[in-house]
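Service request form, structural biology core

Requester: graduate student, group of Dr. S.
Request type: structure prediction, single chain
Budget code: on file
Notes: please return the result as structure tokens.

Sequence provided:
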Amino acid sequence: MPSPSTSLATLRPDLAGSFTEFDLEQDRRGFIAGRVLPVLEVAKQSGKFGKIPIEQLLQTRDTKRAPGSGYSRGNFTFTSASFDCEEHGTEEPVDDREAKMYAEYFDAEQVSAARAYDAVLRNAEIRAAALLFNATTWASHKTDITHEWDDATNAVPLTDVDTAAKAIWAASGLWPNALIINRKVFRNLRNCDQIIDRVKYQGFMDVRAGAITAAALAQAFDLDEIIVAGSAKNTANEGQSVSLAPLWSDEYAMLAQVARTNDVREPCVGRTFHWSEDGSQVGGTIESYRDETARSDIIRVRHDVDELVLYVEAAHLFTNVTTI
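Core staff response, request fulfilled:
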């Protein structure tokens, strides 16, 4: 049976309002895609944009002016890059009979909307993790850790990150502002002797692992922030026993320059391009329509996005981060 057109669907701001604001909702679920690949709104579903080559970002020019002459003018060239937003979405049926049977226990529409919303965000997270924690993309900008960061005595994460930061600067003229890790790696880092010593002598007296926050860790690494992913996925096939794994692998970590503005010219590791003209919202548009043949209301969540790496040189990938 053909799917109903968008014109038959009704926007459901009442259901959308049950979730917190998008960034807070992502954080609550342990998702970081929106932080590592900040959203850039685009007017078209697909198109091209100019990207300043990394070698021209810090280009110098002669600024001396003689009387009667003009001023020197910049002549930056651009390379062509493109985006192509794709629609991602999912639906959850709310059966009339089941909704009435369980009405005293839960609101079936709210549960269905939450499930669909989570599925859309979770898949965006999977795409972001696959895009950034990618040894092929960063083949020329990566370090295979010798002493894994779960080796508390021998690990030297401060040294590893400092060396990588200098490598990013040498390749791009940028100093990275964030370290991207999952929660397991974050917990391992807090136990490293090298970290504990640095934090201790920065005046942070309580150096028990539980007291070393992401902010304290960022200060130890001389970074703006540590971005910690906490989400999981079930890798088992449907019908099999659950097999949980982190969405962002503990075998990888990434040091990167993450965007802080919505200026497409800001050099950064990557962005999420979002096209809203077809009704998409970044966190997912929630709408519903009636399927009378199944005596169900269908809850749909969808968004139109494309995740892109913009500057490989703006990041450095660590591999072999965790022993087990």
